[in-house]
Amino acid sequence: MTVRYPAGHARFRQQFHAVEEIARGSGVDWTILRCADFAANTLAWAGQIQATGTVRGAYPHARTSTVDERDIAAVAALALTHPQHRGQTYLLTGEQSLSQPEKVAALGAALDRTLSFVEAAPDEIRSGMLAAGLPDEVPDRLLGSLADYAREAGPTTDTVRRLLARPARTYATWAQDHRAAFTAGGPR
């Protein structure tokens, strides 16, 4: 998504743009799906929710329109099986812009328990991600984008609705469908 809507560190936008240019120049049919903030990324909160019922994160006012990975897969299948999508670029988001505390509340509703979001300094979150073994680029990309989305919400599109003739799945639906991952002993 950052190719069209720059957010975070410029190097990530440049890398994504370069990959798109390689696809366009490859001589084979292509369809580009631009998306970010996958609903599944919040699975990273499972351990915190299981242990304390609290998610610690930076930039609570950052707003994004989280996309369900199943909607991405459905659009990808459509693009692969219908030639009218060749040479097209689609920006895929959910249809509802949510803050991180609102996502935590949706998870709490799905789990039928009260959860909380506590703001932490970006450096603290970055250190925790690195300590968990993530490469530098992951917290750099996440925190850089969240900092920008705290100033201006990320984009919201109706692309999933237009292409699939149905609304994009909501984050609340995703949370309900994945609640086992957030309960003690649940899958990760």
Automatic annotation (TrEMBL):
InterPro entries xref list: Ergot_Alk_Oxidoreductase, NAD(P)-bd_dom_sf
Gene3D superfamilies from the UniProt entry: NAD(P)-binding Rossmann-like Domain, UDP-galactose 4-epimerase, domain 1
PANTHER family: PRESTALK A DIFFERENTIATION PROTEIN A, PTHR43162
Protein name: NmrA family transcriptional regulator
Classification of source organism: Bacteria, Bacillati, Actinomycetota, Actinomycetes, Kitasatosporales
